[in-house]
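A reminder from the course coordinator: this example appears on the midterm review sheet, so study it carefully.

Given structure:
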C-alpha cells in the first residue's frame, strides 16, 4: 500500500444528518490527501453508485463509506487503514449493531446470492470473534474499500450497488466484490455506535441476549 493515499470519504444521506454523526465526523483524524463528499438521495444505491464512480474518476485509492447514523472514534480511519495494511483485504469494516432488537451485528458470516432467481443463502454472526475475521458481507456504516474493487465489479457486473431482489445494496455489492476475488474482513476492535432512539452498541446487544431476547 503506497504512503500518500488519496482517500474520499463518502456519506450518502437524506436531507437531515444527526448531530452525533456530525460531531464524530468533525473530530475524525484524516490523512493529508483526504476529501469528504455528501450525496443526498432517496435511493441509497443510486447515491453509492454515483460516489463510487466519482472516486474512480478522481483516481482515489480508497473510499471510506460512512452512514449518517453512525457514531465513531476519532481514529476510525487510521485504524481501518492499519487493518487493511496488515490483512491485505480490499474491504475492511468496523463492527456495529442493528438499531432494533435483536441488535445483531451488521455482518454476514455466509452470503451467497443467486442472480437468476434473486434468492440469497446467508447467515449472520451472533458472536463476534475477538480478532480480525473474514466475513461474507458487511453493512456500509463504516467501511474502507479499495477503489480497485469498484473497477473490478463494474467490469464484471456493470453495476456496483444495484440491489438484487430483496437483498440490499451493501449485501449485493459485497457478494459481487467477492465474485471478483476480493476479501472482506471485520475488525472487532473498531467499535461504532448506531444512532436510533438510543445509541446502539455492543453492550445493548449483550444485555438483550443476557435477558433472553429472541
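Designed residues:
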Amino acid at each position: 500500500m503506497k504512503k500518500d493515499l488519496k482517500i474520499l470519504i463518502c456519506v450518502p444521506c437524506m436531507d437531515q444528518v444527526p448531530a452525533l454523526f456530525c460531531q464524530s465526523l468533525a473530530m475524525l483524524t484524516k490523512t493529508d490527501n483526504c476529501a469528504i463528499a455528501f450525496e443526498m438521495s432517496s435511493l441509497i444505491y443510486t447515491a453509492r453508485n454515483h460516489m463510487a464512480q466519482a472516486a474512480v474518476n478522481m483516481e482515489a485509492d480508497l473510499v471510506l463509506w460512512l452512514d449518517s447514523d453512525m457514531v465513531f472514534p476519532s481514529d476510525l480511519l487510521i485504524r481501518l487503514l492499519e487493518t487493511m495494511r496488515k490483512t491485505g483485504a480490499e474491504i475492511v469494516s468496523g463492527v456495529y449493531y442493528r438499531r432494533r432488537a435483536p441488535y445483531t451485528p451488521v455482518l454476514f458470516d455466509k452470503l451467497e446470492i443467486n442472480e437468476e432467481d434473486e434468492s440469497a443463502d446467508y447467515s449472520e454472526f451472533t458472536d463476534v470473534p475477538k480478532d480480525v475475521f473474514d466475513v461474507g458481507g458487511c453493512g456500509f456504516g463504516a467501511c474502507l474499500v479499495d477503489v480497485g474493487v469498484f473497477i473490478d465489479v463494474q467490469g464484471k457486473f456493470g453495476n456496483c450497488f444495484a440491489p438484487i431482489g430483496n437483498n440490499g445494496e451493501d449485501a449485493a455489492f459485497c457478494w459481487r466484490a467477492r465474485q471478483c476475488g476480493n476479501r472482506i474482513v471485520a475488525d472487532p476492535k473498531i467499535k461504532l455506535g448506531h444512532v436510533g432512539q438510543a445509541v446502539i452498541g455492543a453492550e445493548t446487544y449483550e444485555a438483550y441476549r443476557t435477558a433472553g431476547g429472541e
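Residues 44-57 form the longest helix (14 residues). The chain has six helices and 13 strands.
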